[in-house]
Amino acid sequence: MSEKRLLVVDDEPEFGELVSKVASDLGYQVRVVTDGRAFQQAYFELHPTLIVMDMVMPEMDGNELVLWLVEQNYEASLIIITGYSPDYAKDARLLAEFKGLRSVITLTKPIRLAKLREVLGEG
What we know:
CATH superfamily: Response regulator
Order of helices and strands: EHEHEHEHEH
Helix content: 40-55%
Strand order of the largest sheet: 2-1-3-4-5
Radius of gyration: 13 Å
Number of helices: 5
Distance between the termini: 17 Å
Shape: globular
Strand content: 15-25%
Number of strands: 5
C-alpha cells in the first residue's frame, strides 16, 4: 500500500478527476468518490493519509462527513473545498478543529492548479 493515499469526495466527477491527476503526479494512490456513503466505504478500504472533501453535496454534506471523521479518530490532513461561499469551508474548518482534527486547509473553487499542487504537496 502506498505511503501517500488520497481520498477525494466531490459530487462533480470532473473536479475529482482533476484532483486525481494532480495527486497521482505527486505520488499518491488516489480514490475518487461522488457521495458520502461511497466516501465512508472507501475510507475503510483505502485508509487515506489525506482527504479532499467538497462541502456541498447531496444527501450528506461536508459537515456531516467532518463529524463522521472525528468519530473514526481520523488524524491525517483534510482539505475542505467549496464552490459556494468561502464561509461554508471556514465554518467546517472551525468545526473540524474544535472537534480535534489537526490539519485542516480550506480552498474555494475555482482553484488554481499551482495552489492545488501546493496543498497536495503539503499533505
